[in-house]
């Protein structure tokens, strides 16, 4: 029998699956979830605890899987279904994560990029128009410390920050979200262990870390379907307004949207990769990163985290 892999991040919510889902153990396919069951509650938690990224389905059930995905995401974005906000947020967050991974794995694919871009616009509306959506997404913990989940969190913080700053132009917020989602593309093939504070990295690790924005931007610079704003965010998201980032750019030299993503990224790096509690992250950012990010950004991000 022929199998095709699917991402665990897409298997969320209470919708019953119309296919059998398998896990691969020692080259054997073991049936994990039968057609007619759903991936909610404990089943999903066990998969996350095992840090399992991929499952498998029979190749001839791929259309059923695609239909499941489409129905799941349409239901999650529909305000009239009566579904609770956490279930909807789980599905949408997983979908955003999946979209980022699709682009990371195949940046040449125009269709994947455009789908990710379209979904970024829908995601902005979801966060901006649902009062509880922000905290529902932000409370989904990045247990396996993936850059795709980190990208969703940074994009979420970036949207909330843009809203506080009065940036509501749909084109700008869409590109802001897309750039934030894909900002760490330079880490996709990197051997670097991100789950450590920057100030305790070895000189070799720090050198690798400093290269990732430039390398990420260079790899997509020739892709005509990539928006220049997105490339700017990928290349500048570790820059700081005082010129102490990898390229030494100051605020006046940076794309304004990259300045926003830089602030949101610095905040989530502390939370996700350095283990700083959300309640203390803004204070630490203000003390340890003084002068690196606009004070107004840090104050707004502090308010955003307090409201979760």
UniProtKB/TrEMBL annotation:
PROSITE patterns: HD_GYP. Keywords: Metal-binding. It comes from Bdellovibrio bacteriovorus (strain ATCC 15356 / DSM 50701 / NCIMB 9529 / HD100). CDD domains: HDc. Fe(3+) 2 binds at residues 184, 212, 237-238. Residues 125-308 form the HD-GYP domain. It comes from the Bacteria. Fe(3+) 1 binds at residues 150, 183-184, 265. GO terms for molecular function: metal ion binding. SMART domains: HDc. Pfam families: HD_5 (PF13487). This is HD-GYP domain-containing protein.
